[in-house]
Amino acid sequence: MKVLILPGDGIGPEIVAQARKVLEVLKNDGLDLELQEAPLGGAAYDQYGSPYPEFTQNLAREADAILLGAVGGPQYDTLDRPLRPERGLLAIRKDLGLFANLRPAILYPELANASTLKPEVVSGLDILIVRELTGDIYFGQPRGIRVNEAGEREGFNTMLYAESEIRRIGHVAFQAAQKRGKKLCSVDKANVLETTEFWKEIMTDMAKEYPDVELSHMLVDNAAMQLVKAPKQFDVVVTGNIFGDILSDEASMLTGSIGMLPSASLDVNNKGLYEPSHGSAPDIAGKDIANPLATILSVAMMLRYTFNNEAAAQRVENAVKKVLAQGLRTADIFEAGTTKVGCSAMGDAVVAAL
Ligand code: IPM
Ligand code: MG
Fold first, then answer.
1. Domain 103-258 carries which CATH code?
2. How confident is the model at residue 225 (pLDDT cuts 50, 70, 90)?
3. CATH classification of 1-99+267-354, choosing from 3.40.50.300, 3.30.160.20, 3.40.50.2300, 3.40.718.10?
4. Is any atom of ligand 1 closer than 6 Å to the C-beta of 86?
């Protein structure tokens, strides 16, 4: 199995180094892994003048799975838009057809106090957000900034979903719900936007193929509210690219820290790009204080979804639970009575627990 590692920018290299330690342990224990590395985002721009250069693209196309740290940093914010790190991430998602983004929000019992919500609101929380990742207003054409007929500058984007795009993410979401609590909530803004009115119509039609799954619909503004009011009502949530971007950040905070949340972005054959749900956190980069657990848990998702190795996935997840039970915490999840550790010490603790 070829795994391509893309450390990226900011805290990316630090957190990925910890996940790499985990992969090395699994390799030593007999998992057939070939690890390679390439730059993406700002790091790739620095080295190759492009956020998704051919060097990286070739290795990414060949790989069975990809592990990404994070991309972006303030030093790149003034570059032309096509050269910015975020474009590298969007380009690799589109290039590899990674349309299905799975973002679980699980509350570990040890971290119940790390959430800003009352423990009784979030304890036992286990939500899966299925976000469509290669369509919507993120990619719709036309887009740009132009001067209109009145001579005023204006910015514009196009929100667009083809039926096939909705159906393919719908299947992923319905099937995920079948394996979990059999509840699927489709989030839209059908009262205003035709694109998502259409989305709702297709999801409703698809529900006939999945009689064992209970489908509900919710407007995105209400979903944002319900997520903080009564988040445990959700099992699987399916939504488009832009709503999923926003709601997944919100859902991550229910669990106390975005530093705990892994994600998987899959193509039709379960080839995947695995990355923490958080960003590159330039403000804490290089300080060895970032939380590597989301990246390590992304390795677990890789083992589960691309390598179909549930036992190895659980081994990694159990190692993470064990270090939490031991009271080890990075700064983002620290509370009185626990032991604060840095990024690499946390990685070492997970390796020891493995
Ligand atoms: C995410 C990020 C990206 C997105 C950015 C970095 C382009 O916020 O993965 O959620 O908007 O998809
Ligand atoms: Mg986001």
1. 3.40.718.10
2. very high
3. 3.40.718.10
4. yes
